[in-house]
Task: inverse folding
């Protein structure tokens, strides 16, 4: 039986444009290569953290650029211009609060992402470099938090920076130079604000964008690690492509993150304290919540004194990061199943509990001080 | 139909070997030659123009026009005159060429052959790059370091009057504003604070140890000396632990009052000595003079926090 003869249609103008570009750029190949990434063992919700980080970063960049339309990075205008954004500019409070809560979301998501990679044993050969670049990216995220905190130039901002820079000053050899370099002088002032501003809006975004690109490139080169259980045949049977199932999970996760950040911005919008000044008045200086555990650690007597302080503020966090960097080279056992890696599992639980306990005790101490 | 690499090569008289490589013209993207590997691998590889192919019988067999003897006239493959497509960037090659895995060769341009100074050029490129970068290092460093090291400010500021002090050995806070001129900025008023204690002789002894306390400028010259027997002692408002602002407070353990820093909970007595907490040294005594009218004047010195010794910053 013959079907109706096919009518060969002329391509529409849009298709012609697409073909024109495709011939020169290879768009369709790029698109196919981006979407048709095999995900061993199939898509999972647990794989959405990385995509969420990228999503949060993009929105931080967008809201950050918007804030710069009104913000003035000078000690005599930073505070007033931030107050203007909050109180006068339409939806300024929302964009600023979104940016503020977005930064917290970024830290939380980075923790989740790193934990997932750690628990899945996905840092192991051949993915060592992805892990290393990821650690640098984590450092950049923390740098964003630290430099961005100063910009509103209120008391909270000022004192977190005073203490943070004093801590960096304790780095052996380079500490004094580093602290003066960041402060742009002996004490915090305009030079500090200028430096933190340019680092926050130019240096770190460029570094993050470049390294995130490298991170993704290396990830695509090595391919996803897949589940840590199951025979090769089982994994193969469940394998699908990045599109559509994983992208669907990713976009649902991103929408959830977006809703959470928006809700936080509505429920707890940013409110500034008094304008920054070297007299703290009644304000009890405290860093952003994700630095609270380190802050509480430094209250301990064993981390007192010159040496103790170096130990608590520099040596221990430094050694911990160095350990994480060395991890894929120390832990060369190819076993990825977390339930067969008791040291790794216990280590992760101990670190998380430690951070939790110190954070909670910092909050309890806060009550005691009032 | 396109033959596979490793397809049989058959001349007009007999089978001569297999196709081992193909040569591609880098500009037209067309295959210009095939390379025939003689049978048994003994007779070497010969480069035969594509025009000699009479028929592609199947993916596995290619028939040539010439006889096996004629084939001998074609040159042996000079492998060094070619690079593989892995070594050269040819746009859209894969759109035109559908080859099974194997070696696809591209002739090395004549100008690129036998360049003895290839390494020299590579090194020179790096050297010129370094010559562009190096002269920038020092100016850039100096540019960024401009505000980092400044002479100390030894001017005096009046912070208040001693008549507000009623009790001995108790901390009283004096808030003051001072002008602060930074780089291009107009002078700004900033708020600071110090703590003053009217000390009994025991406390004076605890602070000064019986010796006058001298203060120095950048050159090491003495700017001012606090007499060991002055009753009024001024402490810098900056906590020597990590630079927060501390307060005079009464606590459960210290009902008479102590200096307490809310940041990391360092506790100091009225002589500034560390009682508890992580602070590495006592509170910093400031250069201070009280005039006949009871007005307190200080030099607004700041020391580096977190170290045992006093390292002056401001």
Result:
């Amino acid at each position: 039986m013959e079907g109706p003869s096919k009518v060969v249609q002329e391509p529409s103008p849009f298709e012609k444009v697409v073909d024109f570009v495709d011939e020169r750029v290879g768009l369709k190949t790029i698109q196919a290569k981006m979407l048709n990434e095999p995900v061993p063992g199939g898509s999972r919700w647990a794989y959405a953290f990385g995509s969420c980080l990228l999503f949060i970063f993009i929105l931080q960049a967008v809201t950050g650029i918007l804030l710069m339309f009104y913000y003035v990075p000078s000690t005599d205008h930073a505070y007033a211009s931030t107050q203007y954004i909050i109180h006068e500019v339409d939806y300024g409070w929302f964009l600023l609060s979104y940016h503020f809560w977005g930064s917290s979301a970024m830290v939380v998501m980075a923790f989740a992402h790193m934990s997932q990679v750690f628990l899945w044993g996905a840092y192991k050969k051949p993915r060592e470099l992805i892990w290393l670049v990821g650690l640098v990216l984590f450092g950049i995220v923390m740098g964003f938090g630290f430099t961005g905190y100063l910009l509103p130039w209120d008391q909270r901002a000022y004192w977190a920076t005073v203490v943070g820079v004093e801590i960096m000053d304790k780095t052996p050899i380079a500490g004094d130079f580093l602290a003066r370099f960041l402060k742009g002088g002996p004490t915090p002032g305009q030079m500090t604000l200028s430096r933190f501003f340019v680092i926050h809006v130019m240096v770190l975004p460029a570094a993050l964008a470049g390294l995130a690109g490298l991170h993704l490139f290396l990830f695509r080169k090595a391919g996803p690690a897949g589940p840590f259980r199951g025979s090769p045949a089982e994994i193969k049977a469940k394998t699908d492509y990045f599109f559509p199932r994983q992208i669907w999970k990713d976009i649902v996760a991103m929408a959830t993150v977006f809703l959470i950040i928006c809700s936080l911005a509505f429920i707890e919008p940013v409110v500034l304290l008094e304008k920054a000044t070297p007299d703290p008045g009644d304000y009890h200086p405290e860093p952003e919540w994700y630095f609270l555990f380190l802050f509480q650690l430094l209250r301990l007597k064993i981390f007192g004194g010159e040496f103790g302080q170096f130990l608590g503020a520099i040596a221990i966090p430094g050694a911990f990061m160095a350990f994480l960097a060395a991890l894929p080279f120390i832990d060369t056992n190819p076993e990825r199943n977390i339930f067969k890696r008791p040291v790794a599992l216990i280590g992760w639980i101990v670190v998380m509990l430690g951070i939790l306990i110190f954070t909670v005790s910092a909050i309890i101490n806060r009550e005691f001080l009032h | 139909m396109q033959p596979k690499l490793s397809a049989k090569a058959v001349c007009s008289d007999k089978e001569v070997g297999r196709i081992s490589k193909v040569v591609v013209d880098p500009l037209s993207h067309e295959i210009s030659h095939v390379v025939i590997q003689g049978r048994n691998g003994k007779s070497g590889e010969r480069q035969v123009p594509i025009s000699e192919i009479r028929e592609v019988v199947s993916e596995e067999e290619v028939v040539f026009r010439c006889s096996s003897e004629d084939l001998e006239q074609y040159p042996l493959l000079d492998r060094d005159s070619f690079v593989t497509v892995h070594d050269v960037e040819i746009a859209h090659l894969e759109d035109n060429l559908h080859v099974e895995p194997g070696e696809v060769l591209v002739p090395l341009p004549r100008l690129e052959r036998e360049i003895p100074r290839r390494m020299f050029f590579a090194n020179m490129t790096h050297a010129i790059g370094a010559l562009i970068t190096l002269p920038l290092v020092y100016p850039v460093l100096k540019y960024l370091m401009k505000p980092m090291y400044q002479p100390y400010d030894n001017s005096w500021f009046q912070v208040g009057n001693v008549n507000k002090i009623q009790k001995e050995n108790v901390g009283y806070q004096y808030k003051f504003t001072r002008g602060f001129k930074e780089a291009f900025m107009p002078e700004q008023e900033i708020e600071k604070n110090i703590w003053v204690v009217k000390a009994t002789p025991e406390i004076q002894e605890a602070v000064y140890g019986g010796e006058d306390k001298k203060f120095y400028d950048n050159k090491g010259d003495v700017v001012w000396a606090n007499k060991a027997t002055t009753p009024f002692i001024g402490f810098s408002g900056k906590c020597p632990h990590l630079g927060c602002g501390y307060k005079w407070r009464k606590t459960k353990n210290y009902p008479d009052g102590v200096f307490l820093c809310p940041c990391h909970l360092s506790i100091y007595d009225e002589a500034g000595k560390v009682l508890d907490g992580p602070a590495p040294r006592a509170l910093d005594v400031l250069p201070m003079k009280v005039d006949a009218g009871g007005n307190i004047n200080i030099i607004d010195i700041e020391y580096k926090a977190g170290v045992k010794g006093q390292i002056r910053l401001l």
User: Anything to note?
Assistant: The longest strand of chain B covers residues 188-198. Chain B has four helices and 20 strands. The domain at 8-112 of chain B is CATH 2.30.30.240 (SH3 type barrels.). The mean pLDDT of chain B is 89.
